[in-house]
Specification:
Helix content is 10%, strand content 8%. It has a four-stranded mixed β-sheet with strand order 7-6-5-8. A three-stranded antiparallel β-sheet has the order 1-4-9, covered by helices on one side. Helix 2 packs antiparallel against helix 3. The longest helix is centred in the middle third of the chain and has 10 residues. The radius of gyration is 19 Å and the shape is globular. It starts with 9 loop residues before the first helix and ends with a strand.
Length: 429
């Protein structure tokens, strides 16, 4: 996977494993850009690459024709149609949750950590948390579907005054989607479950919502989706999902491709966040934080970020097995580093797993100007380079290649699921 920016250390090459081609030239795009894979250099994921297979197949790209089906799912002030969602209608709006340092609304539960504050909100009604115990956060007792309000405003993308952006209010899930939450989606999933346009961001004119062409990239049925995420094969041994519920239900879900991530979020009453939304929340809006928690590097503090394979070790010593970056042992339950929570309570915005975003990173993705709730729409085939942000559990803080920093941009040269990529959902306020 070429074109990865690096600091030139042999240690870095060992740390990244097959993600780093150590002879590759440094990236030239600005703002610490990076690509995990480019062009056709992508590995097969569970029965095929390069487009959809025949309808009814079991591979990741097995699909069928686009279709529309009924049912409604009212998601935080926007309408979306989806059939097959468990529990019928789902409303993701929540109770007010005021905190010091800004307006901080919470959906279903309290949040802890730097800048979050928070008081109890209304219980979450997301289908992904229906009947799911509250096991998230460091205390393992927080609602995994908590989704705090991020008050709109203006900030500089990548902390660069040349690229201002203005955003409307939105909600951003406090936690990455967990294995337990995704298991609910697997049970509810069926092909062609979304109507055209469902999940549209009402503030972004470029967002057309669910594109029926994407159905061809979706699994044929629930069994095929389960096979994809429980046994995906990108050369790793690191799926968090297990065929049956186990001890990783509150761990972040990985191995989910871009289409499946967007589908989950829409089914759950939301959508994938745009890069501008994610960056705004991570940087604390106009506070322009270098890291989600502030401007100081994390050092070896695993209460700030799950990174450099320091978790779950003790004494701030990198685990000797960190070269095996595919080991899920180094991935923590979501929200395990509350000291690193962002201004509005979102956890794991630095480290743990990369977050899929709505935008693409094609050609280094020059920032859209001007930007008022902007988010470059992906093509009908997002395989050209979906955007990633946030770093991963093996990221380190190195000059010129600080993947934990809020200005660090990244792209995945394939929409396929990977062991180092997770996601969270944005929602209408």
């Amino acid at each position: 996977m070429a074109n990865e920016k690096r600091a030139g250390a042999v240690f870095w090459c060992v740390l990244l494993g097959e993600l780093a081609g150590c002879s590759a030239a440094p990236a030239t795009a600005r703002h610490s850009t990076n690509q995990l894979a480019t062009g056709g250099n992508s590995n097969a994921l569970n029965n095929g690459t390069g487009g959809a297979t025949a309808s009814g197949g079991t591979g990741r790209n097995a699909g069928g024709s686009a279709g529309q089906s009924g049912g409604t799912n009212n998601a935080s002030g926007g309408s979306s149609s989806v059939s097959g969602a468990s529990g019928g209608a789902s409303t993701t709006s929540g109770g007010a949750n005021s905190s010091s340092g800004g307006n901080n609304s919470s959906l279903g539960g309290q949040s802890t950590g730097a800048g979050s504050g928070g008081t109890q909100g209304a219980p979450s009604t997301n289908p992904s948390c229906s009947g799911l115990p509250a096991t998230c956060g460091k205390t393992r007792n927080l609602d995994c579907c908590t989704s705090n309000l991020v008050p709109g405003g203006t900030f500089n993308r990548s902390n660069d005054a040349n690229f201002p952006a203005t955003l409307s209010n939105f909600r951003l899930d406090n936690f990455k989607v967990t294995v337990g939450r995704f298991r609910k989606f697997v049970a509810a999933y069926r092909l062609n479950m979304f109507t055209t346009g469902v999940g549209k961001n009402p503030h972004n004119a470029m967002d057309t919502g669910w594109n029926p062409a994407w159905n061809a990239q979706m699994p044929a049925d629930s069994a095929a989706l389960k096979e994809n995420v429980a046994g995906f094969n990108d050369g790793s041994n690191g799926p968090q999902y297990t065929a049956d519920p186990g001890d990783r239900e509150n761990h972040p879900m990985n191995g989910v491709d871009w289409y499946e991530s967007q589908a989950f979020c829409i089914w759950d009453g939301g959508r994938l966040p745009t890069e501008a939304e994610w960056n705004y929340a991570a940087a604390g809006g106009g506070e322009q934080r270098k890291y989600p928690w502030g401007n100081n590097a994390p050092g070896q503090d695993t209460n700030l970020a799950i990174y450099a394979c320091l978790w779950p070790g003790t004494g701030g010593v990198m685990d000797a097995n960190c070269g095996d970056t595919k080991d899920p042992y180094f991935v923590a339950p979501v929200g395990s580093a509350p000291g690193g929570n962002g201004r509005w309570g979102q956890s794991d915005m630095a480290g743990e797993l990369w977050d899929w975003l709505f935008d693409n990173f094609k050609g280094g993705a020059a920032y859209t100007m001007p930007c008022n709730d902007c988010g470059p729409m992906l093509d009908t085939s997002p395989t050209d380079n979906p955007m990633l942000r946030g770093g991963v559990f093996y990221s380190t803080v190195m000059d010129g290649d600080d993947q934990l920093a809020t200005d660090y941009r990244n792209g995945m040269g394939t929409a396929e699921g990977r062991y180092q990529v997770g996601f969270r959902c944005a929602r209408n306020p």
